[in-house]
């Protein structure tokens, strides 16, 4: 079992105070752009309601829509594959590549292929896989994983990129101008696009009625990869289905505005067949998605359209960095997905939440993220897989709160005595909570006392 | 059992999601008093440029914009004076040196400066992305207010590929600084023809 632990990982990130605040600001800037974009649409809330409705309707009928999508895609000459897990997904992709004698692949950003660990799988079998989204390319060259689903290299400064590019593609070490670096990557990747024999892309939306898939990027990398080589493989989770083309009207309006505050991505491409004399394949993957449909608490998590708005707004994500989550998708949505799929490994993720609810407020499909994270904590406690310290503390809290008189007495005692105690006594090794923060000033009266007094006066 | 059957069975087994039905969007979405000025404003905000010209000015306009560029490709019904003919190329890779691609857009969307491009007469999809610059020509009457109206206009029955293009390609992956020209065109013009 992995020793993964969010607080410990976050500690590494927080150690660099200046960078932590810089990261926090960078993401808050994106969150503010999202606010401006959403406020420019008077029917924004209605769009969110529609989006949640379409997604729930689709999930309730997912079996029918998957079959409808498959039948319609086949009619257009697209080859459709189903994979129950990551291993099967990778094997299917490899088989298609092998049959087509492919040695070089260009890939556009796809969190699903990250989730399935496709790159190392193919590389082990002698296939060169190049990530072509600039942020993804940067982290690929650094042998890192994306730290954000929309902004994969948000944790890096331009000087870090300059150093990486200098080492890997020979740019000037001292030039960290973003335009210079982007242009160098453009030239380098253009050759990769021209030499590749296959393009792998993710899928933003798969339309059941038309049998085609929609891919959204700003850079045009998915488009270059899917239109130059003869072979295009699109990989998608089962939850990417939507019923009709007109539903795209709702999602294309919400996606980019929620993600980066843009009115739409530069390219929103609708692939409904292969290029001339080419082949198009779609791999539909479950990989622990179907169990969500059987849980009343967590079923809405499948509605996610991967805009990243929840992480941009999350005060914990902004200050702990995407890598501290150690899960393919970080932030609030990643915490709930990870905790549900592998509770033993990711038992600390649902506690990396302040329950402020900001994530649920910005979510374009209205996923109840904060409630889900709150529920996870209770599930983990019930399954007895949280740490002993947490378990004992929670048990004591339950015991105490079930005894209102004792609780009132101890609270009163604490209010009177804590201010008198020396700091060394308060911040002892058993006080985990007080490790990196101050105990708040003790109020003169408890809420209960104030409430009672006010009630009397009424 | 095949993986497909396993997945379908897992979906059907005790699916707790309630069916709320599907919404309908008739006459829905923001509308603008002047959709052209909205389009113009949005396109500029994403690094593109809008022009309004008469039909007979097309050639001069394009040659003036790109007087220094060598390879000008076109599949446009309005502009036939290109010197490179993408549809005559067997292999899409031969399009790699195109400096300017002039293409027809089917219609424009005011709310986000996207243009629906789905040319039946275009052989290689890569034309829209591999060119260093792109000019999209749109008949001035072909504009809608929002994406709901846009999807009402598109029928996927007979098309194999189409894309909404909004300005040039761009990225902000390095420290959130916007850089125009990632993998696709470094400039994006939309010309409305009156």
3D structure, described in words:
- The complex is a heterodimer of chains A (458) and B (194).
- Chain A has 458 residues and is of the alpha/beta class.
- Among the domains of chain A are: 61-287, 3-Layer(aba) Sandwich (Rossmann fold), CATH 3.40.50; 388-455, no CATH class.
- Chain A has helices at residues 6-15, 17-39, 44-60, 62-75, 86-99, 111-115, 118-124, 134-141, 158-169, 178-195, 221-227, 247-259, 309-313, 315-320, 331-341, 358-362, 369-382, 388-401, 404-417, 423-426, 447-457; strands at residues 79-83, 104-107, 128-131, 198-201, 205-207, 212-217, 231-237, 241-242, 267-271, 279-285.
- In chain A, strand 5 (205-207) and strand 6 form a beta hairpin.
- In chain A, helix 2 runs antiparallel to helix 12, helix 3 (44-60) crosses helix 12 and helix 15 (331-341) packs parallel to helix 17 (369-382).
- The mean pLDDT of chain A is 95.
- The relative contact order of chain B is 0.20.
- The mean pLDDT of chain B is 96.
- In chain B, 21% of the residues lie in helices and 23% in strands.
- Chain B has a single domain (29-193), classed as NagB/RpiA/CoA transferase-like (Rossmann fold, 3-Layer(aba) Sandwich).
- Chain B has helices spanning 3-12, 35-45, 58-65, 127-130, 147-153, and strands at residues 49-53, 72-74, 100-104, 107-109, 114-117, 133-139, 143-144, 161-165, 170-171, 179-180, 187-193.
- Chain B contains 5 helices and 11 strands, in the order ααβαββββαββαββββ.
- In chain B, strands 1-11-6-3-2 form a 5-stranded parallel beta sheet. Chain B has a 4-stranded mixed beta sheet with strand order 7-4-5-8. A two-stranded antiparallel ribbon of chain B has the order 9-10.
